[in-house]
Design goal:
By secondary structure, this protein is of the alpha+beta class. It contains 13 helices and 14 strands. The N terminus and C terminus are likely disordered. Keywords: Cell membrane, Membrane, Transmembrane, Transmembrane helix.
């Protein structure tokens, strides 16, 4: 069962490929603008194009009647500029959206930085660089001067909305922004000096070495945990095979194993599952530790170079949020699994549970794990979509639309889920029960809210949607009955036959190998039918759950030996042949004929 392809055997590489694909997808969407651009609801017919339905662009904040946007240089936010609120960005008219103004200011700053993609290929003098404030048309304007510029370069104009947003006068706000811009430009020039570039390269190399060392340590630990997990899986598979054999022998064969051996096997099986769950959680945390190290290291490396800081912010932030949501939802899912297993183990230790209770607990636990996994990842997906501005702030509309789609296209699925919930609530059957559903008979192997899987007597795995289960015949609950019919010859001594049968049943009930399975040996014993083929004697014996077949087979074997010992013949058809003289073939002329 372990001879699988390499890509299936190595869970680490499978996780790694999924992570890389997620990163590539998020980076591609970031660069193409598919994520950062909001969902334009105005393109959907029938929806109003008002400020209530239009989400704000990324980075734009609304405060009263003003909107603000950040001004960034080399990935660092300097300050926020403001403008009057734009109700309809598809038709702004004479209004200038704040995000357009902010982009223009950032472009003016980037043109002054040497080596930038928007640079005018000029080199500013760090010693003579100066940002000044001049008044034009009654508005403070920030200019950049130095020895290399033939004329001052305008950067931005401080407007009345800027002053209102900052709660300062325009002149005071202009002076504050002047100091911020001058410091930012000087720092940008310093970081692009040859000495600073060499230091940035050295920092990137140190980060890379640290990443490789930590990755090696975590990778070795991950590999050791993988080997331990493989050993536990092999042991668990062996235990499951033994447990399945014991169940099959207890249900379908004349096994002499006492029922008590199956109960400790179930407890040991649950203990191995909990240990395996811990190892899987450890490997999962180690894997995400490696991913986190590479993500943090990549972010620090990109942030070390001023040219890539903006790229690091735009490209790294979204993948980090995607992976963070994936990690948190997965961690919550696994911790919940561990909590459920731990709770079951505590329940086993606190009270004496029967085998049926253990089966019911295992069945409900499996269904709960599957249901909570769907809920956790659904909540994580909705939260991520809202964070990416791909859905409106209120999810009521999305929920109503989803409910409509489900009600129209998934009616059968809803029926399956409701009926599956009722099956669990009413405890109609459990995993391991022998049931008859319609014309299907077998042992329940899997049960969740949607489907039920049954292993038939021929070994076929049958899958049934829960909505099709309307009537269940559970043959493994509380107690069972062995219904045995024995037909003896018509001329046999009926009282002798009943006495022999009663003695045989009593001996079997007193046998230590079968006494624990027989609950009532005297439930029914009598003549059920008389016909030309013989006399039918019916026997009812109340047995332990799922033991009726084994009891019936063993009783028939013992009755055959007892009948042979007391010369009691089984029933055979009686026929009479007459010749033309009115005599049968075996009758002499002096004997009367039989009629």
């Amino acid at each position: 069962m372990f001879n699988r392809p390499v890509w299936q055997r190595s869970g680490f590489y499978r996780y790694l490929w999924l992570t890389l694909l997620s990163l590539l997808l998020s980076v591609a969407l970031s660069l193409s603008g598919a994520i950062v651009q909001p969902l334009v609801l105005a393109q959907i017919p029938g929806l109003p194009t008002t400020s209530a339905t239009q989400p704000l662009p990324p980075g734009v904040e609304r405060r009263g009647t003003l909107e603000s946007a950040p001004i960034r240089l080399d990935g660092k936010t300097l300050f926020r500029v403001a403008a009057p609120m734009v109700l309809n960005r598809n038709e702004p008219g004479s209004q200038l959206p704040i995000e357009v103004r902010a982009k223009q200011i950032e472009t003016n700053l980037e043109r002054l930085i040497p080596g930038h993609r928007l640079s005018d290929e000029l080199t500013l003098d760090l010693q003579t660089l100066e940002v000044v404030v001049e008044t034009l048309n009654g508005q403070p304007v920030l200019f950049v001067k130095d020895a290399t510029l033939t004329e001052p370069r305008g950067i931005l104009t401080v407007t009345e909305p800027d002053a209102q947003y900052a709660a300062l006068s325009k002149n005071r706000l202009a002076e504050q922004w002047r100091e911020i811009v001058q410091t930012a430009l000087q720092q940008a020039l310093v970081l692009r000096q040859p000495e600073a570039v060499q230091e940035q390269i050295a920092t990137a190399i140190q980060i890379l070495i640290a990443i490789l060392v930590v990755t090696t340590v975590l990778g070795i630990t991950w590999e050791l945990a993988r080997r331990q997990q493989k050993q536990l899986e092999q042991l668990l598979a062996a235990e499951a095979e033994v447990l399945q054999q014991q169940e099959s022998l207890a249900v379908e064969s004349s096994s002499t194993e006492p029922k008590g051996l199956l109960f400790p096997a179930l407890r040991a099986h649950f203990g191995l599952q909990q240990r395996l769950q811990l190892i899987r959680l450890l490997r999962w945390l180690l894997f995400w530790g490696i991913v986190l190290i590479w993500m943090v290291g990549t972010a620090h490396t990109l942030h070390a170079f001023p040219q890539t800081r903006q790229f690091a912010r735009q490209v790294v932030t979204i993948p980090v949020m995607l992976l963070l949501s994936w990690f948190l939802s997965g961690l919550t899912n696994r911790l919940t699994d561990f909590s459920i297993d731990r709770y079951l183990q505590i329940r086993e230790q606190e009270q004496s549970l029967t085998e049926g209770n253990l089966r019911r607990i295992a069945t409900i636990a499996r269904v709960i794990k599957g249901l909570k996994m769907v809920l956790i990842y659904t909540v994580a997906l909705l939260w991520l979509l809202q964070w990416l501005n791909l859905v409106p702030g209120s999810l009521l509309t999305v929920g109503a639309l989803l409910a409509l789609v489900v009600s129209l296209a998934a009616q059968n699925l809803v029926k399956d889920l409701v009926n599956g919930f009722l099956i669990l609530l009413e405890d109609q059957f459990r995993i391991g029960d022998n049931v008859r559903i319609g014309n299907l008979t077998g042992v329940v192997e899997n049960l969740n809210l949607r489907i039920t899987q049954i292993r038939s007597n021929e070994g076929n795995l049958i899958t049934l949607p829960n909505s099709l289960i309307t009537q269940v015949e559970n043959r493994s609950r509380s107690w069972a009955r062995a219904d045995v019919q024995v037909e003896i010859a018509y001329h046999s001594d009926i009282d002798q036959a009943l006495a022999v049968i009663q003695t045989t049943i009593k001996e079997m009930a007193e046998d230590p190998q079968w006494s624990s399975f027989i609950l009532n040996p005297q439930e029914l014993l009598g003549v059920d039918q008389i016909s030309h083929t013989g006399i039918v004697i019916r026997i009812w014996i109340r047995t332990a759950p799922a033991q009726q077949w084994a009891i019936g087979r063993e009783l028939r074997r013992r009755l055959k030996l007892a009948f042979d010992q007391h010369q009691i013949q089984i029933g055979i058809p009686q026929q009479l042949y007459l010749n033309s003289d009115g005599l049968n073939d075996n009758q002499s002329p002096n004997e009367p004929s039989q009629k």
